[in-house]
Specification:
single chain, about 475 residues, Rossmann fold, 2 domains, 7-stranded parallel beta sheet, 6-stranded parallel beta sheet, globular
Length: about 475
């Protein structure tokens, strides 16, 4: 039986406004509300629509706290979400949100039943200082996995020593991985000692493992050894792997859609129903990646030459970007591949697609949410890591778990379309061993989130621990 909290145990949840960060924390918040916690969720006005499903599911236990978005010289007026800035917008977004410190202190001090803790995204490391000032614990939510969290902590704690190395040895981690510097999140190479912006980033990252505890969107079968490492590293047991959280949200069919996705959902699933089991490769590179003209053409030609059925999700960008060839599918392509493939522009119902029996492979940038959704679908990964933590996550899939194969790498790479086509065709027709491992991982993911599973037990344990706070 799930743990039931006292109705007076109040938690402040602070998501980071980027899709890959926000979705899993909203799913976690849903689970915490089901277990009886009272929750205030902090958003700025333009991010309020993202939590509408959650609010309607829990009208009495989840309350929004809507604070004005603080201005920042590098963020255009009216922009409050990273999807409108791209990956380079993370630093100004983190800096802008840190200005909410004082309004949050005022809100806390005026509240009749203030929160007993802050649960905030790992990109909001400055909230540890806020929690200290309020004399309550800060709990870090990692929307990524334990391997990435461990790597990030180490490189930021040793940034001066590691910056100049071409390869970095992580001897303290399970398996002692050696990772090329170019495959690590690029921000730490830009670090400048004593620069206030970079010291702010560094302090935030290294503070993530120094708080009261950590909650991670991962599960035992995926990363048990890295979770064990983190527990040993932080010196306590308050490290909770509670994923894949995509299995537990209030409604996963239109995750990330800003409007109704039901019509598109029906069209795509009808198309998939006509395809043989395991024959379709799903192609999607997340909500932020926009391909330039040469990349679009290489990918289109590779998909066509593969002879493999496919669904390709294309980010189109602004009208100006389209005029420059970004996100533009070349004329005639969709007519040529009419029987072979489907092109979707903008948002796609990724969870139902990956769970359809016709889909056997996922050509992905290896963003963590996509990895978990592929695991739940029992689908192998054709990895094209590009930036941030994606190379580290791809390594976990390909080298540690054997559920993926690398087909390209690099944000600006233009693959050889003949080689890409061959690679897709080969893995989709001959990758039986990988397919079997992916199906096994699906079983483990479903078991973790079922009654009595490891992640469900960790969720219950987390709520029990939170209920001890402020007692």
């Amino acid at each position: 039986m799930a743990a039931t909290a006292s109705p007076h145990r109040h938690l402040l949840v602070f998501p980071y406004p980027a899709q890959g960060h926000m979705l899993p924390l909203l799913d976690l918040t849903h689970q915490l509300a089901l277990r009886g916690l009272t929750i205030t969720i902090l958003v700025t006005p333009k991010n309020l629509p993202f939590i509408s499903t959650l609010l309607s599911s829990h009208p009495s236990s989840i309350t929004p706290l809507v604070l004005p978005f603080p201005s920042h010289p590098l963020i255009p007026p009216g922009v409050e979400h990273v999807k409108d800035l791209g990956n380079s917008g993370n630093l100004p977004m983190m800096a802008a949100l840190s200005k909410l410190h004082d309004p949050l202190v005022d809100w806390f001090n005026s509240h009749s039943n203030p929160p007993v803790a802050i649960l905030s995204d790992f990109f909001l490391g400055w909230t540890r200082r806020l929690a200290t000032n309020l004399q309550i614990p800060r709990i870090t939510f990692f929307s990524s996995g334990a391997f990435v969290a461990s790597v990030m902590d180490y490189i930021w704690n040793n940034v001066e020593k590691l910056k100049s190395l071409s390869e970095i040895e992580f001897r303290h981690l399970p398996g002692s991985p050696v990772i090329k510097q170019e495959h690590l999140p690029p921000v730490f190479k830009l670090y400048k000692r004593s620069d206030p912006v970079w010291e702010f980033v560094r302090d935030g990252v290294i503070g993530n493992t120094k708080g009261w505890g950590c909650v991670l969107n991962t599960f035992d079968a995926l990363e048990a050894e890295y979770v064990r490492y983190l527990k040993a590293y932080v010196g306590h047991n308050r490290v909770f792997d509670v994923g894949p959280l995509s299995l537990t949200g209030p409604d996963v069919s239109d995750r990330g859609s800003s409007g109704s996705g039901s019509v598109l959902n029906d069209q795509v699933l009808t198309w998939l129903d006509q395809c043989p089991d395991g024959s379709v490769v799903y192609v999607c590179f997340g909500s932020q990646k926009l391909f330039r003209k040469e990349q679009m053409e290489a990918l289109a030609n590779g998909l066509e030459k593969s002879g493999t059925r496919f669904i390709w999700v294309v980010n189109s960008g602004t009208i100006q970007q389209q005029d420059e060839g970004y996100g533009v599918v070349s004329e005639g392509f969709e007519q040529r591949i009419a029987g072979q493939g489907l092109v979707i522009r903008g948002w796609a119902p990724q969870v139902p697609i990956l769970n359809h029996k016709a889909v056997g492979g996922f050509l992905s940038h290896c963003g963590w949410n996509s990895i978990l959704e592929a695991a739940v679908g029992g689908v192998m990964i054709l990895a094209w890591p590009m930036e941030a933590d994606q190379y580290v996550s791809a390594r976990l899939l390909v080298d540690d778990l054997g559920v993926g194969v690398r087909v390209c790498e690099g944000r600006d790479s233009v693959p050889n379309s003949d080689e890409l086509g061959r690679a897709i065709a080969e893995v989709m027709t001959k990758g039986e061993g990988m397919k079997d491992k992916a199906k096994d991982l699906k079983g483990e993911a479903l078991a973790a989130m079922s009654h009595g599973g490891s992640s469900m037990k960790n969720l219950d344990r987390f709520v029990e621990e939170v209920c001890q706070l402020g007692a």
